[in-house]
Amino acid sequence: MTICMPITDGDGLDASVSHHFGRAPAFAVYDPDAETVDVVDNDSHHHGGDKSPPNVVAETGAETLICGNLGGKAAERFDAMGIDVYCDADGTVGDAIEALRDGELTPVGPDDDGCDHEGGGHHDEDGGHGHGGGGHSHSDGDHDHDGDDHHDV
To answer: Which DSSP string corresponds to 34-66?
Structure first.
């Protein structure tokens, strides 16, 4: 089962998992059989490319996506692609893999509204607004951060 994660920096198991799925600069692709991590640049439309972030992940051959947060529209896209999604990852790629193995991550299905860290301020999954300072939660429907207010996924 190949696993993909959005990352902010670093490489290998020590790369930092990004809380901003669609705007992450790169994705770590973990092969558990070979115990290797490859880094793939995020060349989606958020970075001047013409693909959606879910398409970039699908092109890695990943069967599973682990992320901190994810918008509902992206969750629907991953379900349609047959890619399992788990949210609430934090720390490094190694930490996220361990959390998945330990059953500590939240599975996200097509009928979910995506996932976010309530109060964490990280809601920029695939085209929404990026709000840094903690304490923001946009679960009131004003900004659902699933790409509707900027880009289709």
So the answer is: TTEEEEEE--BGGGT-SB-HHHHHHHTT-SEEE
